[in-house]
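Section 5.1 Outputs to date
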Amino acid sequence: MLNEERKFRILEALSLRGRVLSSELVAELNVSEDTIRRDLKDLALAGSIKRVHGGALPVGQVPFSYEKRQKESIGEKSAIAKRAAALISPGQVVFIDGGTTTALVASFLPKDLKATFITYSLPTAIALTEQSNCHVRLLGGRVVKELLLTMGPGLLKEIEAIQADLTLVSVECIHEEFGATVSHPDDALVKSAFIKQSAETAILAGSEKFGKVAPYRIAWLNEVASIITDTAIDTKRLKACKKAGGSIVVV
């Protein structure tokens, strides 16, 4: 079997099963463990899979460009954002991150709501300022152009001085075994800091993000109050996440 054909078969199996084991691939493709190990390494370097102990998982293919992400799954994102907005009570201090779904939360807030939002996202800060009467604080740092986020060492110190009531955070991947993960290391640090300094956390994640994994974990599923997703979530994946301790809210 040719190298490229073998890798295609691996990706095909991963797509169908959601996870592949090296031992299974050795038997199915009738090749050595070393060959499968090299194939998985090549696929991981190409960004096609995420290697884990004993095999591989699908990797989250989330475009970093904010503009591109903004145009995807608008209906599902709006439903999730609307449910998240309902979690916010008057007088609360809320951390909110730079996801395109979290940015939509502003459009579902009551006009008379009095709350404080703290973010490191330029689009989220603008949306909250334009669409609500809430107080908005933009954390400082250098601007990461592709993400439209402010980041830097001083930002984490700012977060450590705040005790929030609620965190609304988006992720790239949700997996029952590996938790909530993202692919940008600095973004992971900020999200983790938000969660640590907050009394309660809700993760906003579309159904397409389940069953995948990215390099940097921000939380285990049982460490957050709720994970809000859309109705297209796979039933087996939903059950697996609930079994792992995740409180899944489907909207």
